[in-house]
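Allow me, if you will, to draw on your knowledge of protein folds for a short while. I am sending you one protein, given as its amino acid sequence and as whole-number tokens for its backbone shapes. Kindly check, if you would, that the fold set down in the tokens agrees with what the sequence suggests. The record follows directly beneath this note:
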Amino acid sequence: MISILQSARVAARMHARQSVLSAGTQFRTATILTGFEETLAETREKSLLGGGADRIEKQHQKGKLTARERIELLLDEGSFVEYDAFKTHRCGDFGMEKQQIPGDGVVTGQGYINGRPVFLFSQDFTVFGGSLSETHAQKICKIMDKAMAVGAPVIGLNDSGGARIQEGIDSLAGYADVFQRNVEASGVVPQLSVIMGPCAGGAVYSPAITDFIMMVRDTSYMFVTGPEVVKTVTNEEVTQEELGGAKSHTSKSGVSHLAFDNDVEALKMTRELFDFLPLSNRDEAPKRPTEDSVDRADPTLDVIIPSDPNVPYDMATVVKKIVDDGDFYQIMPDYAKNIIVGFARIDGSTVGVVGNQPLVMAGCLDIDASVKAARFVRFCDAFNIPLLTMVDVPGFLPGTDQEHNGIIRNGAKLLYAYAEATVPKVTVITRKAYGGAYDVMSSKHLKGDFNYAWPTSEIAVMGAKGAVEIIFRGKNVEQETKNYEERFANPMVAAQRGFVDDIITPSSTRARIANDFDILRTKVDERPSRKHGNIPL
């Protein structure tokens, strides 16, 4: 009995001791957790603040938004999920170990635009001038890898001073890693670059590989070597804006596709462009409901072509009268204006539009126009976007300047792009279709699916005057010109050969091509097996 009581007392004392020890452990654990939570909150606050209030204020004074403000405007409200907010650089040289800012100058993650997923990065100029370090590059590569894995577009908001010099070769390696991802993602997921600040040196090559580049006027610029280096090497004096500003790259170099007045407009228009695009090469472009009937006939199209073949008209206006709701999102509107390219919708579905512009150089194809249109055609083909081609082309632009700068090689790029495209291709000839340019502009001979001509079209080797001078060598020019025009200045011969499928009334164009694109949804066009073709770059 005594033994039992003693055992009970011992057990009670042990239980009490264990209770005290457990309470102490819980207290110490709670203290540790509280301390960690405080550290976590402080670190997160530092990450959100970036370079600090003073640098944010300087960013605003330049008319620029911060990296996080840009993300908030670009994405659907509350949809952003950030990655690697606490990641910091590992550089121990030049005192960098004392400068650790969580996030390391770039905000990365995922979100939604009008309910559709997107991955993005936004460089933070308030942190080390947005310079790219090894870890900065790793963050960008992570979201690009995820985008390719799930099949979603990538948008880069660029605002960076370039490579982080303190990290040396590690920074250069980071750029190369990003470039490799850009190439691997090309044709797999759409890639959009918005230049919202400086983008210089090797940094320019990542946007250059992406599908579309947008710039902000007066606050963004791109160049391989800056004004100081240019002056040292060539003795030229040039400003940053003149050398690599939005105006230079949208109207002269063709590097940038679009330019906008401020960050807000650039982000708004990026959202609009995004809405035309599929998520990946495995998806169709989104279909937008429309009240614009596919059977709508616009009688103004029947009289829009001037009776004088030398009088110009606006092909963009023609396009707007055909597509849904007159909505035509032009790409590169300020570069190579003799051809127009852009996105529109037919019966709610995205189509890529290419058209000669008679208002500029009579719509002739030249080097810049050929390259502009070829790249657009290849983008549409890569992402299964049908092509509508509006043709009014008197030929390739003649002259020693064009010949010496490679019109043969560059014109062949557009021919190659159309010939290799397997997406649905519908072509409408509105007026002139002369010579080799007729062939190049998505002709039946380049596997155009449906090719139409308006009654005003002229399909021939060349214009009547030039042809008569060659054939008859100046004899009976007036009469022979009239005979030639009666014979060839119309689409009947092409229709008789089957080179156009029909001669249609202009006002019926919308209904006709809408039906064609619907029929072509299940098109299958298999080509010979190969690693890749060798386009004349």
